[in-house]
Write a structure and sequence with these properties.
Blueprint (H helix, E strand, L loop, with lengths): L4 E4 L3 H14 L3 E4 L11 E4 L12 E3 L7 H13 L1 E11 L4 E7 L2 E8 L2 H14 L2 E9 L3 H13 L5 E5 L4 H7 L6 H10 L4 E2 L2
Parallel strand pairs: 1-2, 1-3, 3-4, 5-8, 8-9
Antiparallel strand pairs: 5-6, 6-7, 9-10
Length: about 200
Amino acid sequence: MPKEVAIATVDGRAYYTLTRLLKDAGLPFEAVVPGEQLDRTVRLVITTRKESSLIEHHNVICLEDLGEDITEMRQRLFGLLYGGKESTFVIGVDPGERIGVAAYYPRSEVEVEVFESIEKALDRVERLIQNANAAKKVVRIGYGKPDIAGEILRQLRSRGLTVSIELVDERGTSSLAGSRKRKETRDQRSARIIALKRGRKVA
């Protein structure tokens, strides 16, 4: 598989942090010494501020600029790789006693998480939308529990975000969510399915 990301650093601590991040994100990478010639498939180079002047590439980011939050790190990386004027950023929300949230760029999963309250879930949704590098941003809300879905819709609208909102028919998503053999909860699987299923536009 072509490696689109390169880690360019001789700083051991930075290298360890970046390799863990990229492996967790499922992004193949090559490791190079700053100043070393890069493969033509590389679309993004990650380095440190101290070494950044040695990098000759059009798309460079420093570890220090990625922030502390793991989800926001992943979103920033995927946005640099797959975001832009032609891309769409999609978030699926699974209403219930716990709220599942799944976020995607076209080729990459940014986050799948479960929250104990609507407010905490929407705080994360808001941050994801604000940080998304995409021309179009869509939030898809499952409509399996209309009362909770309606409350999420109301609160989401009240935040004044620039985003399209769709209500998704959840019929069939429960069986699909239960059939996947992964180390994740039903709420997470349902949020994934909702994110990838077109719904009825309501905003």
